[in-house]
Description:
143 residues; alpha+beta; five-stranded antiparallel beta sheet; 3 helices; 5 strands; globular; binds adenosine monophosphate
Amino acid sequence: MSGATYDTNNIFAKILRGEIPCHKVYEDADTLAFMDVMPQSKGHLLVVPKAPSRNLLDADATALAKTIPVVQKLANAAKDAFDADGISIMQFNEPAAGQTVYHLHFHVVPRYEGAGLKPHTGEMEDHGVLADHAKLVIEALQG
Ligand code: AMP
């Protein structure tokens, strides 16, 4: 449904309103970051601007400008937290591009030398593991 409007009941809008839980790692006035429940690699997390937009295509430029420094901050924290060799930043727009949740988000995916990625929206991770990983990111952010 390319060109569709923003649905205020998408799952990330519910997380932003506190209606469903998440493994939060960072929050400021404009952004929230939390662990992806179906990680493609150890430490995969999501950075979500609080401003509503379906994806990058309809996002407000000011919101984007506030979000990218947070993506950078979380990329460095995840690299440190998991001793990763690299970080992939991924962001999908519309179903044809692989988007499944229609509130703009950036994937921060730690990469490990020689290791591929698990499938996108593959297996649900254990919540204890996600909680442990969130703690490691929070500690890395505290430096
Ligand atoms: P995308 O396909 O780019 O829209 O990515 C959506 C991402 O959100 C996928 O990687 C999912 O694993 C992840 N996801 C879906 N539901 C939740 C949730 N409740 N909490 C955290 N991550 C989620």
